[in-house]
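Hi R.,

Here's the chain you asked about this morning:
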Amino acid sequence: MFQSFITVLDKCKSFSELKQIHALLITFGFCHDDPMSSKLLSFAALSDTANIDYAYRIFSRLPAPRVFNWNTIIRGYSNSKNPNKSFSVFIKMLRAGVFPDYLTYPFLAKASARLLKPELGGAIHGHALKNGFVLDKFINNSLIHMYASCRDIVYARRVFDGMPVKNTVSWNAMLDGYAKCGDMVLARQVFDLMPQRDVVSWSCLIDGCVKSGDYKEALAVFEQMSMFGPRANEVTMLSVLCACAHLGALEKGRLLHFHVMDDGLPMTLVLRTSLVDMYAKCGAIEEALDVFRGASNGKSDVLLWNAMIGGFATHGFVKESLELFTEMQIVGIVPDEITYLCLLSACAHGGLVKEAWYFFECLGKHGMTPKSEHYACMVDALARAGKVAEAYQFLCEMPIEPTASLLGALLNGCLIYGKSDLAEIVGRKLIELDPDHDGRYIGLSNVYAAIERWNEARTMREAMERRGVKKSAGFSSVEISGALHSFVAHDETHPNSEQIYKMLKFIVSQMKHGVHKDNQEYTVYETKCS
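And here is the predicted structure, written out as tokens:
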């Protein structure tokens, strides 16, 4: 019978099943016997349906918990919503006279990382050293991760440099640490020095490039990985798809989608959401919808619906965005703050002030607190619809301080509807909030120029120069045959510039003369962009 219970526990798949098995174990007097108690505790604390408080109740009834049982509870709390309890359990463990082993400290380091408390992690580090775990790779790797997560990269490097023998996990932890802290120069240096690289190494470097905003470099690293590295996994694909979304690299995104299908990567919900987001941000709204519709109702969540609703909103498909929200409610997906942000954006694009008010008020009705982004969308909706005074009143009555994006939305409305007095007030406030942003000075300069106050317009440009703020060049990007080409105004750096400008002049001349293609013989200029 004992072995039968072991078998049943191994096959347990839900928390309700576990409770039934637990009841039977109590009835038959087996709940304190090993390995039964350990298996019961592990499932309750660590499974996908874990209930750490229930696990702790099981643990507290064990007559003499072993170090394995203590570690299970510490690990369970380190994964929970309250990682602090890992430390209180650890203190009880020490008071009970149980000596921690090489597994105890990494779980505590993880709890410190999740709490972003390097002082707790430092104390755990010191305790591990006192107890003779100076050279343990498993502990040191977790300490590197902990210090890096807490943005203490200097201590992370000290631990790394102090390891006489490093494995791939050690190198990956250090690489990820530099990437997390935004130091991509040192991250690349670590990557280049690695004696061996796995999929985690490449994924960390790509993700670091994405998070630092160097999307082209992320794609370049992925190309190198495709040629010289291991096969990409889901984590890699998520980062590269994010880079494509930011660059608008549709052809590259399509190739990645094909890569996912061809390599047989599981179409997880996270990956599907990332594909929808990429297609939507690249303007391929039909393809985004096709991927979205590929998910069955039982395999979707609010993030997937938000990506599609937001995609419609971004491209001005207001009716479709609102209809999809209705469908979302019908299938029983509960909207969150992002859902309402997407809907408010749709209303702003469509000039639907009444509907915007409705969705804004829904936030409070459903127990959500509007964030600055929601207020900004509401101001944008009012300002775009010409209700500039109402937008300003709404802004003044907000319970939060106005952000630059909030004021920017109001300034745009002022410029569109010629509210120069209010535009001047808002423009000056924007400079106060964001004095190192070139667009703030240029915005106010444009306000003055629009009402022919040339001296003030010039003064703004001079103030910008005095502060050392430089105007960042605006640029356009176009993707041809999978390669991205960027251009600034009057750009002549492209190798095909001469042909490009010839074609541009040709197109402009045809536009000016209103000549239809069917009635003319054209000289075809070949524009092959490398």
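One quick note: Residues 515-530 have pLDDT under 50 and may be disordered.

Cheers,
M.
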